[in-house]
Amino acid sequence: MAEDTSNGQGQIKRTLKTRHLAMIALGGTIGTGLFITSGSAISTAGPGGALVAYGIMGIMVYFLMTSLGEMSTYMPLTGSFSAFSSKFVDPALGFAMGWNYWFNWAITIPVDVTSAGIVMNFWLPHVPSWVFSTIVLVLVFLINYLSVRSYGETEYWLALIKVITVVVFLIVGVAIILGIMGGQPVGFSNFHYKKAPFVGGIPAIISVFLVAGFSFQGTELVGITAGEAATPEKSISKAIHSTFWRILLFYIFAIFVIACVLPYTDKNLLNSDVTNITMSPFTIIFKRAGLAVAASIMNAVILTAVVSAANSGLYASTRMLYSQAREGYAWRFFGYVNRRGIPIYALIGTMVVSTLAFATQFIVPQAYLYLTDASGLCGFIAWLGIAISHYRFRRAYIAQGHSVSELKYHATLYPFGPIFAFVLCTIVICGQNVSAFAKLDWSNILITYMSVPLFLILFFYYKIRYRTHIIPLKKVDLSRRTKGEKYEPEDE
Question: Does residue 492 sit within a domain?
């Protein structure tokens, strides 16, 4: 582990409140995956198949989040699951997990700011989109530069806008289904229209797992924030439980409403382009209810979603790089914290990489697309790491003479939870592009699965160079601190 690099200049500040954590986890998953691409799940598997896929994926995410909650309340560390992988499994896994997750967000930030620029063109089509993208990039940097609380407050209000939009959408959708708005009641006729409710059988449901999985990614952000939570023992467990049910209900109800109002054969459901907001299922249903400015409203909501994603991405990648430095996996100066509690060099380093990735689209557009595709499965790899780490943590905890009753937060249905999550994540990763294997389309396979060999290269590089091994259960480090971090909770 790296030495303390703070040099007395500053410490990570635990200032994020319970309401911040709840909204960060909730807002992190309500974005373009729900507003734009959720309709494709209904088109692919039918209304019944989409609901089953999202339901199963939601249950898996619940198990993952309770696993993360158990570890984070016991050991609230900045860097979360990367540090857990190092402590509970193998330092090589922690090294690969940390850099994998940092890379994922560092490359996703320019994608989000680019989307923000495109969304702004809806209102100002004659202004180059890169102008707006640059403004958003600078904005999220300043938010993260000022303080941890500024990040938390920004995320709280951006997430609140998305939550209100979903709630209004559900109310309007139910009114259309019952015939209160939009003319004749539609009822549940689209649930048995043609081949509905299940279209394409089990293979279609499995393919929708991929869409659902990407939609739910971001829930693990609550683990990243654990190191800066004011009262992690209370706030993390509360945020995980309340947030999961809200997310699952929002997604399930939203898909249910869309499936009731629009038949699975509707071509608009196949829209996955953030630039075509007029074809979003949310926009179509709002228009059907008589809301003339639906497109502008949803465009504004999409803008808050992508800005929120970029803001969270910069926060998460900065904290992960900071954690890597603390664990000895990155240059030590990335572990420096200024007097405001910001890992300033980790923030600047991440910002430089994201800016360079953003600039590649002006030089070699294809290179930028490859970088984006390379981060595609990184989130699922992170989930795998959470499942493995929790399985090992609980076994090590018992092996070292502790009792589960000593833990302040208990994960649900251990060991079934982490095992189920591990198996399902593996299925999703392997099934990401089965058709490419059937056609032996190697270029497509490489683009789709690029993040997997990158992760393995990182893992085996560290393992071979430092000759690491899986840590025996009785030698697992269950100390509740990371060197250089002090746990001094502030008042809620």
Answer: no
Go through 6-38 and write b for each residue having 16 or more CB atoms within 10 A of its CB, e for each that does not.
Answer: beeebbbbbbbbbbbbbbbbbbbbbbbbbbbbb
Residue 32 lies in a domain: yes
- Number of structural domains (the chain) is 1
Q: Across the chain, which distance is largest between two alpha carbons, in Å?
A: 69
Supply the range of the domain harboring residue 85: 18-467
CA 378, CA 355: separation in Å to the nearest integer? 20
Tens digits of pLDDT across the chain (492 residues): 333 444 445 677 777 877 777 777 677 677 777 887 788 889 889 999 999 999 998 899 889 989 998 998 898 887 778 889 999 999 999 999 999 999 888 988 988 898 888 889 889 989 998 999 999 999 999 999 998 889 889 988 998 898 899 999 999 999 999 999 877 888 888 988 888 889 988 888 887 887 788 788 778 887 787 778 777 777 777 777 777 777 777 889 999 999 999 999 988 787 666 666 667 888 888 988 888 788 888 889 989 988 998 998 899 999 999 999 988 999 999 999 998 889 999 999 999 999 998 898 788 776 666 666 667 688 889 999 999 999 999 999 999 999 999 998 899 899 999 999 999 999 888 877 777 777 887 877 877 788 889 899 999 999 999 999 999 999 998 986 554 444 444 443
With both helix axes pointing from N to C terminus, report the angle between 378-399 and 91-120 in degrees, rounded to the nearest 10.
Answer: 150
For the domain that residue 315 is a member of, what is the CATH number?
1.20.1740.10
Looking at the domain assignment, is residue 333 inside a domain? yes
Residue 311 in domain: yes
